[in-house]
Structure formats: structure tokens, C-alpha cells
Amino acid sequence: MPPIGQFGPFIALLIACTVFGSATDRFFSGGNFSLILQQVSVVGVIAIGQTLIILTAGIDLSCGMLMALGSIVMTRLAADQGVPAPLAILCAIAVTMLLGMCNGLLVTRIKLPSFIVTLGTFNIAFAMTQIYSEAQTVTAVPELMLWLGNTFGIGSTKITYGTVLMLLLYLATWLWLRETASGRHVYAVGNNPEATRLVGIETDRVLLGVYTLAGAFYGIASLLIVARTGVGDPNAGQTDNLDAITAVVLGGTSLFGGRGALLGTLAGALVVGVLRNGLTLMGVSSVYQMLITGILVILAVTVDQLSRKGGRA
């Protein structure tokens, strides 16, 4: 990847911060930056799983609803069935991993397009969430599930433990992709699956592992959203799939697979967070925030497409 492709998301983040910092004196403050990180933490963790799938030239439209299902499973098990909170959390992550594995099996065994598979899973997870929750918000959430929403101080700025967890997950996954053979196999499968298979790498196993691992990240995101909101909301996650894809695309990961950097996804998520936060501080309607975000996504995909054509020329 050319240097501009590596640093483009960070340059965009710097420009956005500069613009909003000059437009409103409330932007450059520790409390506001902490708020931005809190706001992007859930989508940011979902976007880790989405990045892994897009690196293999797939896409996951079910990620937001798997997160919502996980949040309902853990809160209802704990609040209504009396299951200890740690076990309820593990059960929720197991459910999201299972559905992620089902996505992977359909993609690898039956060779269905990931777009269609995950669109179906989106609807299945939505229905399961509504049925299991009886379309009711779960409010009696154990304190342990809210711990990641607690804060600690750095000077006068309060940082949530959920923000720290998100950053640690990015660091750990980035190191895995960069430094391990299994991580490099993810890039290889997305870049050229047939050549990867011919050198002895089991591409189906890599894909199945990626979809299952992505499900684990969605389960962790479900814990983060419970900690942030204090409830199990059956209507959560309906647009988080698009937000996660937006973060991945703005972060420079190619929708055609095999090219991208996980830390770019973090920058992409922060660009969206900064954009929405800055426009809100300026009093701009949320409709225009969506308009600008959509334009940025189209521009990012256009740059990706042009760079691919330039590379083949």
C-alpha cells in the first residue's frame, strides 16, 4: 500500500479536528475527546470484526444485530433467569460467535455470497432479539455488566474503561495481523484465494475462523453497549452495520479484500465520531451529518477503485 493510503485516514482525522477546533471553542477539550471515544467505542469494536471480514473480500451486514442479540441474551439471562453475570456474558459471546460461525459455514461450504448470507442473518438475529426480549427493554442489569461504563481520571478528564478495552483490542488484533502467520493468511485469502490455496493454506478454515472471531468481537461490543446505556435494548444495533462499514472504508481497507490496516479502521471510526460531534457542537442537523458521511464513504470507495485501476495499469 502506498504511504498516502496508510496515512490518509489519519490525515483526514487531523483535518477534521483542525476544522472543528477552529469553528467551536468547545471542541478542543479533554472532556469532549473522551466523549467522542465513548461514542465510537461500540461501533469501533464491531468494526474490528468487520475489518477482518472485508480483508477477506467479504462483508457482514449482520454485525449490528448480532451485537443487539448478545446484549439481550446477557441481560435477560442475568436479570430474569438469575444466571451469574460472568456466565451470562460468556453465553452472549458464545451466541454471537455461533452465529458468526454459521455465516462462515454458509460462505465456505455452500459458497453463498457473504452479502446474502449476512443479510439473512441480520433478519434472523433481529427476529430472535425481539422474540427473546418480548420487545421489552431489560433494565435490571447487574452492576458487573456496567463496570466498563465506569470512569477513571487522567488529570481533569474522565475516561471510561470501555474506551481502554476498545484501544487494547485494536492493538492486540493489529499485532496479530501484522506479526503472526495466521494473521498474514487473512490478507493472503483476500488478495488471491486461489493462489493462497495452491501454496497449502486452507482458505476455508481461514474464512471460517475470521467469521467466528468477528462474532466474538460483536459479543464484546454487546457488553460495551450495555455498560454504556445501562440497559438491554432490543432495538439497538439496527444501523451499526452501516456505521462499522463506514469506519472500515474511511480507514482505507479495500472492499475488494487483501489490503488495509486495522489502525486505519480506528482512525475511520474516529473521523465519523469527530464529524458528528463537531457538527453537533456547531448546531448542524443530524440529517446533514448523514449526508456528509455518505459523501465521504463514496469518495473513499472511489479512491480505492481508482488506486486499484492505477495498480493494474
Please indicate the percent range of residues in DSSP E strands (runs of 2 or more): under 5%
Class computed from helices, strands and strand pairing = mainly alpha
Radius of gyration: 19 Å
Average of the residue pLDDT scores: 92
- Ends apart, CA distance between termini: 16 Å
Secondary-structure element series: HHHHHEEHHHHHHH
Quick one: how many beta strands?
2
The number of distinct helices, counting runs of at least 4 residues, comes to 12
Strand order of the largest sheet: 1-2
- Stretches where pLDDT is under 50 for at least 5 consecutive residues are none
Describe the biggest sheet? 2 strands, antiparallel
Helix content percent band: over 70%
Shape: globular
Short description:
This protein is an all-alpha fold and 313 residues long.
Give the key terms.
single chain, globular, mainly alpha, 313 residues, two-stranded antiparallel ribbon
